[in-house]
Amino acid sequence: MSVLLALGAAALFALGAVLQQRAVIDEVADGADSRLTWRLIRRPFWIAGLLADMIGAVGQAVALGIGKLLVVQPLLASYVVFALPLGVVLTGQKVGLRAVLAATAVAAGLSGFLLLSKPGGGARDAPLLDWLAASAVIVVVISGLMWFAQKLDPAPKAALRGAAAGCAFALGAALIKEVVTVLQSEGVAAMLADWHFYAAAFVASATIALNQLALKAGVLAPAVTASVMLNSVASVALGVLIFNEQLQASSGSVIGSFASLLLMVGGVLVLAIEEHGSPGDEPEIAETA
Fold this sequence. Notes:
This protein has 289 residues and is mainly α. The chain is 77% helix and 2% strand.
């Protein structure tokens, strides 16, 4: 059941991302100013995308509550497969067959690697100090990615901003898993009194802002792929460090796990060199949307 919920959430997140990008690329103003989100609130496509994200988040939360972080989050890599065709239909972007096949390879390879590795174990929660340490590392990584992205061309800018959003997604998922656990075991009052709930809300708002900036670069594939990759990788790290989940690859699954990993890396490399649409700066992309 957690697998089906995760796949459904991935499809909704992909729809939300494409709808929000449709709204974002209609904005001609460049730069990461604080007014961007307020302008987007007035656009129907952005609202529809936000609603899709919210429904997807509910499905993800339920999946995290009954499944493992190491399984649920990597399955969200199928987001790539859903997002690229939707980008063609809803935003008119040109995504070639190679990009679609490469995105499929990323999703299948990453999911296959983790599923064949047979994730096991897991604790209910971690000490506050562990949460603070993990959060500090993620904040430093996000800050570095956003700083390096400032002067880059649209495609690499989208990739780095997407990677930053992916890191935030992973931290938010880990917090949501604990929030759902508290809700299931102790009820609404205990959940509202627990610090994880408010931390998850804060991280969710930061993730939305980072995701808008990634989509604003105007090139869908690098943003989506980088976000999925970092989300999955960071979730694996948080699952091991925070919840003590373990990757327990048996001898019989080693070959399949290694092949899946190579498939994933190959897909990322193809997407990295693939050209998506015509080159140009962000205002030009917005005007031709």
